[in-house]
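queue> pop job 88
queue> type: inverse folding (structure -> sequence)
queue> payload:
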């Protein structure tokens, strides 16, 4: 029967036990003394035993009440915690976020976004898991992660996505002759040592189509999955590359870059599970991530 007691009633009982007086309990709770008296009367009937004994003008918890008071205290603490947490969640200050991303993002652009995001949300925790695009999509379809950052998502019924076109640039070593130019064209890449994306990627195929249209034949030196890998190689004077300006900026001071014409946008996709209701924390993070890219969009 005691399970039918309401949370408000338990708080009144605990307050009377702490204060030793219905009048003081009423003042502590901000309600009237008759309201406290009614609650105690209702609980006495509900529990089936006397809740208090009167001694020297004070209300002393009965033996039975003393037995259940520790459980009542734990219930009140738990409910208060739930209420505080729910307020934090509503205010977007608490929660846990699981983000899957491309390996390059885990060590380049994403840390700055995460640091800024957490600065105003001290009780939010984040899991970041880098992996290849195929694995990221598997995780999102399986609802193992709240959102993902991947390349050029092409569609799946279990995934909702936002795709952004990021400007691309030609990157080259600091001492390279390309430093003299304001923009780089396909013709300038003829016979140049080229570091490029995987041949089966949409980006390489688009770039290769430009080379064919301009009758350009660069020397294909290194094939790498990630733009960050290309940046590392260019910084070591291995060759030149066409990459996202987002990645190029990360290597400021280690290499140079110029706009590449015609521009071949790098498509970056934010993905999340379609059949899972997104938390406010997830939606806020996705919005902040998109905002961090605004000055790079084509």
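queue> result:
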């Amino acid at each position: 029967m005691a399970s039918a007691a309401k949370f408000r009633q338990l708080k009144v009982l605990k307050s009377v036990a702490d204060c030793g007086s219905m009048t003081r309990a009423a003042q502590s709770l901000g309600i009237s003394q008759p309201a406290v008296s009614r609650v105690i009367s209702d609980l006495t009937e509900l529990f089936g035993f006397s809740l208090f004994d009167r001694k020297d003008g004070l209300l002393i918890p009965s033996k039975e009440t003393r037995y259940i008071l520790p459980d009542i205290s734990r219930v009140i603490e738990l409910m208060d915690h739930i209420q505080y947490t729910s307020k934090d969640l509503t205010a977007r200050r608490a929660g846990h976020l699981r983000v899957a991303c491309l390996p390059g993002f885990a060590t380049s652009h994403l840390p700055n976004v995460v640091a800024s995001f957490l600065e105003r949300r001290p009780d939010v925790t984040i899991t970041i898991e880098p992996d290849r695009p195929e694995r990221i999509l598997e995780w999102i379809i399986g609802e193992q992660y709240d959102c993902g950052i991947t390349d050029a998502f092409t569609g799946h019924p279990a995934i909702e996505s936002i795709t952004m076109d990021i400007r691309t640039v030609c990157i080259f070593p600091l001492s390279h002759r390309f430093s003299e130019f304001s923009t780089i064209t396909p013709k300038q890449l003829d016979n140049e040592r080229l570091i490029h994306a995987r041949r089966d990627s949409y980006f390489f195929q688009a770039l290769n189509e430009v080379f064919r249209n301009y009758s350009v034949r660069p020397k294909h030196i290194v094939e790498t999955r990630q733009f960050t890998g290309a940046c590392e190689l260019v910084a070591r004077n291995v060759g030149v590359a066409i990459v996202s300006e987002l990645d190029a900026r990360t290597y400021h001071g280690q290499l140079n870059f110029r706009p590449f014409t015609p521009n071949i946008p790098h498509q970056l996709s934010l993905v999340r599970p379609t059949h899972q209701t997104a938390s406010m924390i997830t939606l806020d993070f996705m919005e902040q991530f998109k905002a961090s890219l605004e000055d790079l969009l084509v």
